[in-house]
């Protein structure tokens, strides 16, 4: 019987957004991501603390008038993990829109 927890619902929702498949792990010792499409794999995480998400919401609201009809992204630099590089935080729906044109032909990605 499938789990209907918010976390599992998110995994299913994101797989659908990406036009992909949620991967089933019968053994939690298996090391595989939560989902895949032809051009992407992903892992979904649910945490009690969402500092980055709160920061995104606050800044998107703060700059909404300036942003207008453009999409707002939050660029993150983690001092403690500088070798990992910089990250961009965007809503999952927007990410799916951005990658959709490349989902059938990974070689078309820039």
What does this structure look like?
The protein has one domain. The chain contains 4 helices and 5 strands. It has about 110 residues and is α+β, with helices and mostly antiparallel strands. The N and C termini lie far apart (about 40 Å). The strands form 2 sheets. The protein has a 3-stranded antiparallel beta sheet, covered by helices on one side. A hairpin with a 4-residue loop joins strand 2 and strand 3 (about 40).
Poorly predicted tracts of residues: none
Structural class: alpha+beta
Average pLDDT, rounded to a whole number, is 82
Helix content: 25-40%
Radius of gyration: 16 Å
- What's the total count of β strands? 5
As a percent range, the share of strand residues is 5-15%
Please report the distance between the alpha carbons of the first and last residues.
41 Å
Number of helices: 4
Task: Describe this structure in a few short sentences.
This protein is of the alpha+beta class. It has helices at about 5-15, 50-60, 65, 90-100; strands spanning about 20, 35, 40, 75, 85-90.
SSE diagram, text form:
Layout: H1 6-17, E1 21-22, E2 35-36, E3 41-42, H2 51-62, H3 64-67, E4 74-76, E5 87-89, H4 92-99
Antiparallel strand pairs: 1-2, 2-3, 4-5
Keywords, please?
single chain; 110 residues; alpha+beta; three-stranded antiparallel β-sheet; two-stranded antiparallel sheet; 4 helices; 33% helix; 11% strand
């Amino acid at each position: 019987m499938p789990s209907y927890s918010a976390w599992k619902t998110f995994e299913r929702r994101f797989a659908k957004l990406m036009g992909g498949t949620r991967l089933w792990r019968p053994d939690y010792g298996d090391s595989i991501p939560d989902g895949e499409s032809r051009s992407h794999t992903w892992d979904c995480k649910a945490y009690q603390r969402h500092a980055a998400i709160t920061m995104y919401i606050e800044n998107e609201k703060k700059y909404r008038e300036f942003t207008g009809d453009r999409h707002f992204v939050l660029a993150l630099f983690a001092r403690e993990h500088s070798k990992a590089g910089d990250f961009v935080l965007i809503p999952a729906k927007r990410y799916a829109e951005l990658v959709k044109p490349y989902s059938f032909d990974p070689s078309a990605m820039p």
